[in-house]
Write a structure and sequence with these properties.
The protein is an all-alpha fold. About 85% of the residues lie in helices and about 0% in strands. The radius of gyration is 20 Å and the shape is globular.
Length: about 230
C-alpha cells in the first residue's frame, strides 16, 4: 500500500506541475501564452510553493489512510492532522470563492477599503484565510473526534467543497472574460485550477481506500473458505 501511495503521489505531482500550473496561464490569457511566459512561471517561487503544498497534502492524506488502517492507535492524533489538512484546503477553496465573487463585483478595481493599499489587502486576505482554517478545523474535530473514518470524511468534504467552488469560479471566469477585464480572469483562473487540483487531491486517498477495502474483502473471503 505504501508503494501505491507513492505512485499516486508522484502521478498527482506530475499532473499539478505539467498540466494544472500551465492551465492558469491558458485560462488567464485571451490567447495561448507563448512558451517563454510559461517558462517564467516555472522560474517563480510561488508555483513551486503552491505545488508543494498540494502534493504534500495529497501524500499526508494517502499515508494517513494507509498507515492507520491496520493499527489501533489513539484516534485524536490522526484526527488532529486530518482536521488540519481538510480545514486548510477548505479554507483555500473558500478564499478562492470570495475572490471570484470580488472580481465579478469590482472587476479590475480594488474595493474602496483596499484602494491603493496592497499591504492591507494581503493582510486582510491572510486573516480571512486563517480564520476560516481555524473555524473549519474546529468543526471537523468536533464531529470526527472519536471517528475511525476521519480521512474518508475529509475526502468527502474536499470533494463536495471543490465541486461547490467550481460552480462559482467557472461562471465567474466566463463573466469576467466576456466583460473584457484585464487582470480579473487571472484570479478566476487560479480559482478554477485550485478547485480542480483539490478535487484530484481528494480522489487519490478515496481510490486507495476503495482498493484496500477490496483487498481486505479478498483476505476475509480466503480466511472463511479455508
Amino acid at each position: 500500500m505504501f508503494r501505491w501511495g507513492s505512485v499516486v503521489s508522484g502521478f498527482y505531482a506530475a499532473v499539478v506541475l505539467v498540466l494544472l500550473l500551465p492551465g492558469v496561464a491558458l485560462l488567464a490569457f485571451k490567447h495561448t501564452p507563448p512558451a517563454d511566459e510559461v517558462l517564467k512561471m516555472y522560474l517563480h517561487w510561488f508555483p513551486w510553493l503552491y505545488a508543494g503544498v498540494l502534493v504534500g497534502g495529497e501524500a499526508l492524506l494517502l499515508f494517513l489512510s494507509v498507515d492507520t488502517s491496520w493499527r489501533r492507535m489513539r484516534p485524536r492524533q490522526h484526527v488532529a492532522v486530518t482536521a488540519a489538512l481538510a480545514s486548510f484546503f477548505a479554507a483555500v477553496l473558500a478564499v478562492c470563492v470570495i475572490f471570484a465573487i470580488e472580481v465579478v463585483v469590482y472587476a479590475d478595481n480594488s474595493p474602496p477599503l483596499w484602494e491603493g493599499r496592497d499591504n492591507l489587502f494581503f493582510a486582510t486576505a491572510l486573516g480571512v484565510w486563517v480564520c476560516l482554517w481555524l473555524i473549519w478545523g474546529g468543526i471537523f474535530i468536533q464531529y470526527y473526534r472519536d471517528s475511525s473514518k476521519a480521512v474518508s470524511a475529509a475526502v468527502t468534504w474536499l470533494l463536495k467543497g471543490s465541486v461547490l467552488e467550481l460552480l462559482i469560479a467557472v461562471p465567474s471566469h466566463v463573466f469576467v472574460r466576456q466583460r473584457g477585464d484585464c487582470s480579473a480572469p487571472a484570479v478566476t483562473a487560479f480559482g478554477i485550477v485550485t478547485g480542480i487540483a483539490i478535487m484530484l487531491l481528494a480522489f487519490g486517498p478515496g481510490v486507495l481506500a476503495l482498493y484496500k477495502k477490496r483487498l481486505d474483502a479478498y483476505a476475509r473471503n480466503s480466511r472463511q473458505s479455508s
